[in-house]
Amino acid sequence: MSETGRHKTIHGSSAEKSQGAQTLATRHTQQIGLITDQPNPQYVVDMQTGILSGLDESTYQLVVRPCDRGSPTLRDDICRIVRHQRLFGVILTPSISEDEELVEALRSSNCPYVRIAAISLDAEDRMIETHDFVGAAQAARHLAELGHRRIAHVRGPDHFLSSHERLRGFRMGLAVHELHVDDRYVLQGGYTFESGVYCGERLLAMPELPTAVFAGNDEMAVGIYQSARRAGVRIPEDLSIVGFDDGLVAQRICPTLTTVRLPIRYMGTLAAQLLVSANDEASMEPPLATSVIPRLVVRESTAPPRRANGAS
Questions:
Q1: The sheet that has 127-129: what strands, in order across it?
Q2: Could you tell me the residue range of the domain that residue 184 belongs to?
Q3: Contact (Cβ atoms closer than 8 angstroms) between residue 94 and residue 114
Q4: Which tens digit of pLDDT belongs to each residue from 128-168?
Q5: What is the pLDDT confidence band of residue 251, given thresholds at 50, 70 and 90?
Q6: Are residues 257 and 138 in the same domain?
Q7: According to the 3-state scheme, what is the secondary structure of 199-237?
Q8: What's 279's domain CATH number?
Q9: What is the C-alpha separation between 199 and 78, in angstroms, rounded?
Q10: Which of 135, 199, 203, 290 could form a disulfide with 294 if both were Cys (CB 3.0 to 4.6 A apart)?
């Protein structure tokens, strides 16, 4: 998904926008919408694949609508999409799922929805909770147990709850080993490859280099790989790297990436089943689970720090 596509917003007349927050009672089609503002294209592909899998045994079809959470007409635009395409309901991914005003507009319009978020924000029958802090704590403990002490963190955008939860979990995991993240080593990225490259360059330009980095997602982790290669820094001999998501790139890059596995496809499947089961006319039963627990997958990008670096 291109940057242009991701930030595309839909504009209509003021009359259309005023109608957007009104009733969506004409919604009778067998279509559900995936509403997303994700900057990571692989996340969207995996989520879409999971939703389609969850719809296999139903007659529902999927409509994907990228959006820009920063748009001043966001809520009216989405309500207009739901009304015009007569969607049965919508699945909201982070960070759009965290927009309480949008959710209230959907709720007031009697539009079924399912939110995917790092923490619980709604009733169980409307939430898929991902417990991001748990996975981040595992990443922290892994690096601490390898012997790392100068550990950096490249976090995601501030408007994503996952960014805050992953930082919180990382700090909690280090605290178990009586360690903490020096604020100098906490940089904010954008959940994109480019932001990973930029933050990696900043970290590797510091007088006292970190011996390990926890990246807020795999895209940024791969960007840090690029920065390390350009700087002549070897992974994992000179720098250990941990990502988050466990997308396809984690196993395709060399060395393979140690990362926290977030089962995005499975999350999409759960969200689809949860949403469709809300229809009284559907035969689909609600899923048994409405949350997932991420787990660390150790590969080749992490190792004990070299003594020569004074990192013990």
A1: 61-66, 31-36, 89-92, 113-117, 127-129
A2: 132-261+296-309
A3: no
A4: 999 999 999 999 999 999 999 999 999 999 999 999 999 99
A5: very high
A6: yes
A7: HHHHHHCCCCCCCEEEECCHHHHHHHHHHHHHHCCCCCC
A8: 3.40.50.2300
A9: 34
A10: 135
**Token pair in block for residue 102:** 């949008």
Q: Name the amino acid, one letter, at 106.
A: L
Domain total in the chain: 2
Q: How many residues does the chain have?
A: 312
Query: Which CB contacts under 8 angstroms, 24+ apart, belong to 307-310?
Result: 309/209, 309/211, 309/238
The reply to whether the predicted model has a pTM over 0.85 is yes
Helix (H) / strand (E) element for 32: namely strand 31-36
Query: Which long-range contacts link 9-15 to residues 24+ away (Cβ below 8 Å)?
Result: 9/67, 9/68, 9/71, 9/73, 9/74, 9/77, 10/77, 10/80, 10/81, 11/73, 11/77, 12/76, 12/77, 12/80
Comparing CA positions, the residue from 28, 112, 32 lying closest to residue 64 is 32
Max Cα-Cα span within the chain: 69
